């Protein structure tokens, strides 16, 4: 702390500016490891980290050593770096990840046993559906989703449920931008999406088919907290060729209601 | 970067010293949120963070703002702070957490369906069994384990399996320290533990009863990678009062072998 006056001279804007710059550089190094949805996790060389973080190699070398010392990065046998288990240990303690997942998991397992299909649990985070949990059997249809993945709101079952119950300004902002048409069946026209969201609110369930991945369809339902607020969505993803089965939709509703009750939700009409 | 000469003057030991100190202070803030095994995740006030991190309130305020800006901490409505979802998002991308868990999950689900008991997946990390996954039904026996928890090696089924297959120096170091006796039945005498590890290597399974939690017993088996190295352990935790059931042990072995095969392991005798 005795260095502050000199640092202030150096940065020209107070010690905070200098600290922030170190913090920003540290964060840029971890952000270099963020993988897009569907991609596999990876290791990076020091040079690759420096390039992705936009930092000089010497600075990168020094700051990577800081992360390794704390456990945020791990040095592999081949000299490359990967994200470290310390991040995972702290990450699974985040209230949302831990409490919601812990409460929901038995109901997700029931849903998986009943349907034998991929089971997803997702929350709204920014403009994305963030996948908190995914249960899959050995032979389920192949998907790009994974735990920690972010997928669009308008082209996934859980995303549509989350958007249908999002605050008006979130929906307006989302529909104000151009929505990607992943497949011919993807609904992207704002008014058509709005009608769809109204129907989801009315029926309590979202159904979509081949709007994100060829050959896969989804049935999703909202999870509510004690106050009735929709805090998450649960879905199953099935093969589009499978015959429509009313039992599947019922199982998704039962799972969503089970988690909601466990979160303290009681229906107004009860 | 233009500030470096002045920073060097300020810290008296080169710019690296100043950067390292900022990094260490940033890490100390996150470490304030680390919860002991079994504890629930929590939120902390700014004052509590400053106390736990051993930092002045003004520094804490500034660095907490850095973490919030990046997403490593989240400010709750009541003004308290919790770990942020960014940590979870990056954490679930760590190679061990992601690949091992993804590969193992279908087999863990099978094991859960067969036995209806708690299912654990753990790896050796330092002197602890680190719990990567836990599946539990609605009515399983109550336990302190949770995803991300660290539990001792000598008093848990997965821990004994991991210790039985650890390098000799790891076992020696572990047994050189005094082992905690959680319950009257906990085996803590080094030679008794050694005999136990030898038997686990011989039989391919660890059984323990009421050595960590009253009323709960465990059956655990090793998971091997392509090279035959034990990289994880899987277990079920059952009520001690339940009648011993050979089918349960068989189910644990089948699950462990399934994950091992999925990791590329082929038995030498095959």
From TrEMBL, chains A, B:
Residues 20-85 form the HTH iclR-type domain. Keywords: DNA-binding, Transcription, Transcription regulation. The keyword tRNA-binding does not apply. The keyword tRNA processing does not apply. One of its GO terms (biological process) is negative regulation of DNA-templated transcription. GO terms for molecular function: DNA binding; DNA-binding transcription factor activity. Transmembrane segments: none annotated. SUPFAM superfamilies: GAF domain-like, Winged helix' DNA-binding domain. PROSITE patterns: HTH_ICLR, ICLR_ED. It holds the Pfam family HTH_IclR. Residues 86-265 form the IclR-ED domain. InterPro entries: GAF-like_dom_sf, HTH_MetabolicPath_Reg, Tscrpt_reg_IclR_C, Tscrpt_reg_IclR_N, WH-like_DNA-bd_sf, WH_DNA-bd_sf. PANTHER family: HELIX-TURN-HELIX TRANSCRIPTIONAL REGULATOR, ICLR FAMILY (PTHR30136), HTH-TYPE TRANSCRIPTIONAL REPRESSOR ALLR (PTHR30136:SF24). This is IclR family transcriptional regulator.
């Amino acid at each position: 702390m005795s260095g502050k006056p000199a640092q202030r001279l150096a940065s020209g804007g107070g010690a905070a500016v200098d600290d922030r710059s170190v913090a920003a550089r540290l964060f840029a190094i971890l952000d270099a490891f963020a993988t897009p949805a569907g991609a596999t996790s990876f290791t990076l060389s020091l040079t690759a980290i420096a390039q992705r973080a936009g930092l000089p190699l010497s600075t990168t070398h020094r700051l990577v050593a800081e992360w390794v010392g704390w456990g945020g990065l791990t040095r592999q046998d081949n000299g490359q770096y990967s994200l470290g288990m310390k991040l995972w240990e702290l990450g699974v303690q985040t209230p949302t990840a831990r409490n919601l997942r812990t409460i929901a998991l038995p109901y997700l397992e029931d849903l998986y046993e009943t349907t034998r299909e991929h089971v997803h649990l997702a929350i709204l985070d920014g403009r994305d559906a963030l996948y908190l949990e995914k249960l899959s059997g050995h032979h389920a249809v192949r998907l790009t989703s994974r735990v920690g993945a972010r997928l669009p709101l308008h082209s996934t079952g859980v995303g549509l449920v989350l958007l249908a119950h999002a605050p008006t300004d979130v929906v307006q902002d989302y529909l104000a931008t151009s929505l990607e048409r992943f497949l011919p069946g993807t609904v992207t026209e704002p008014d058509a999406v709005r009608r769809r969201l109204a129907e989801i609110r009315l029926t309590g369930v979202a159904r979509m088919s081949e709007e994100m991945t060829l050959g896969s369809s989804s049935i999703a339902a909202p999870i509510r907290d004690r106050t009735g607020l929709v805090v998450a969505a649960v879905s199953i993803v099935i093969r589009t060729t499978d015959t429509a089965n009313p039992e599947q939709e019922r199982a998704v509703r039962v799972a969503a209601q089970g988690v909601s009750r466990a979160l303290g939700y009681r229906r107004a009409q009860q």
